[in-house]
TrEMBL record:
UniProt-listed Gene3D superfamilies: 3.30.465.10
InterPro entries, per the entry: FAD-bd_PCMH, FAD-bd_PCMH-like_sf, FAD-bd_PCMH_sub2, FAD-linked_Oxase-like_C, Oxid_FAD_bind_N
FAD-binding PCMH-type domain mapped to chain residues: 1-171
A single GO molecular function term of this UniProt record: FAD binding
Keywords attached to this entry: FAD, Flavoprotein
Designated name of the protein: 2-hydroxy-acid oxidase
Source species: Pseudothioclava arenosa
Organism lineage string: Bacteria, Pseudomonadati, Pseudomonadota, Alphaproteobacteria, Rhodobacterales
Pfam families, per the entry: FAD_binding_4
Amino acid sequence: MKIETEEQLAEAIRTAEGPVRIVGGGTRPVGQAAGTPLQVAISGIRLYEPGALTLVAGAGTPLAEIEAAVAAEGQRLPFEPAHWVAALGQGGESTIGGVVAANVSGPRRVQAGACRDSLIGVRFVDGRGEILKNGGRVMKNVTGYDLTKLMAGSWGTLGVLSEVAFKLLPAATSQATLVIDLPSDAAQPALAAALGSPFDVSGAGWLPGVGAIVRIEGLADSVAYRADRLVSLLAPFGAVRIEREGSAQLWADLRDLAPFAGKPGDLWRFSVKPSEAPALVARLGGKVMLDWGGGLIWALLPEGTDARAMAAPYTGHATCLRGAAPAFEPEPAPVAALSRALRAQFDPRGILNPGRMG
C-alpha cells in the first residue's frame, strides 16, 4: 500500500488488522520485519530557510533531492549520510525518512555528530494511528521527552515518520585528504593521532587499495596550513601524501562502501572502541574498511560467517546488513527491558516492523 499523506498513514495504521512492514525507498532491508508492506511516499521539501540553516521535508523525500537543494545554497547535511544502494545490492532510492530511521551517519560524524544530532524535529504516527510531533524548526525542546532523538535509529519500530526537520551547516569551500601507506590493522594509531590533534579533522578512516585517510575541510588557506602541519605530525607513521583533486571521491567511496558493491559475501558493521580496531581487524581478516578513527569497522566476509563469534571478545555491537545471520545482536537485559517498555508505550499492539530488530 502506497501512502502519500500523513492522514492516509494514520488511517492505515489505525485500521491495520495485523503487522505492517514499513518501506521507504526500499534500499535498507535490514532485519526480518514481518507484515503487510506499507510504502511511505510522503514527499517534498516543506520548508527551507537557508538563512536560518533549517530544512523540513516529508519523510519519503529522496535523499538526493534534499542534498541537491541544500548544495545549491552552499550548504549540507552535517552528518554526511551514506548511499548504501549498491553495497547492499538493492534497487530503489534512499529517502530521508529511511536515513533517520536507521540513524545513518557518514565519515563526518567524528566532527559534526550523528544523524540524530542534526535532527531538530519529527512528526510520526505511532502504533495506535495517532499523529505525534516533537521538536520543530528551532533547536529548543521543552516537552520533557526527546522523541526526536528516540526516533533516530529505531528502524520504524516505535512509529512511522511522516516529516523530519534538520539543522544544516555551510558547505566547506576547500578540502584535502592526507593518505598514509598503512595496512588496515596498523592504521588506528595514526588515525587517533590525527583526531587528537588541534587541526579540526573531519574524517579519519582506512580504504582498501588506498591506505589510511585523514580529511580536513574549510577555507583554502586554512586547509593548506593544517595539511602541512598534519603531514609533519603523521610522518612517524610512514610516508604521507596530500590528495586534493581526488579527495572528495575517496570519502564518497568510504561513505558508500564502494569497494564492497557487487561483491559476494556477508556485509557486517562493527561499532567498537577505536583502540580495539587493530586486534579486531586482525581476527576478521578478509576485506575491511575503517571509519570514525577505527570506531566503525566494515567487513565483507564469506557467506554464512559467524562474524560475532569470530570477532569476540569486543566492546560494542555488530550488525549484519547483508547476509543470513540475525541483523542485530541481543540487547543486554536492562536495555532490552527498556526497549520493551518503549515499544509497549508507542506500539501497544506490536504491529510496527515486528522482528526488524529481533
